[in-house]
Amino acid sequence: MSSVQSKKRPTFEGVFLLIWSSLLTALTRFAHSRASWFILTGSAIALEAAALYFQYVMKLDPCVMCIYQRLAVFGILAAGLIGMTAPKYRIVRILGALGWAVSATWGLKLALALVDMQNNPSPFSTCSFLPEFPAWMPLHEWFPSVMLPTGMCTDVPWQFMGVTMAEWMVVAFSGYLVALLLFIVPILSGSNKPSLYK
Q: Is 93 a catalytic residue?
């Protein structure tokens, strides 16, 4: 009798796998919902609103690297909008995830470069005064109030808790990439309970 009871008693491994499976199933369902993509879009809108607040209310001039990072955030915003259109379809989620990955990776690269530029200023490492957008898409001419740089990359006009704006953007873009890594398998999954998790 005791041997039968021991067989029925759940093991630590079994409980862990059950919790893990339930968690990943919940993440998959969330990734297939509009709410998840709405949160991604909303976070990007909040970052863009903060950038405009810094520029027009606090009078902090954006540099060309800041403008590029704005564009990267717009890419994340666009990725969120793509995912919101029809999150039940895998192809839509894949397109959204690709835009998310490319934009967040590019944004992190830009933010790290700007941090290095500010921490190690050099006359041989400077940024241009105007963004180098393609000739067929001169965003700084089409939308000068948002995409025209007016500051210098080496300036550090604002800090919060001893962390510069460029360093906060490293945190932000890193957060986007961590979130993507957390959700990438649920995003690519074709069902609310993928076989990988069974």
A: no
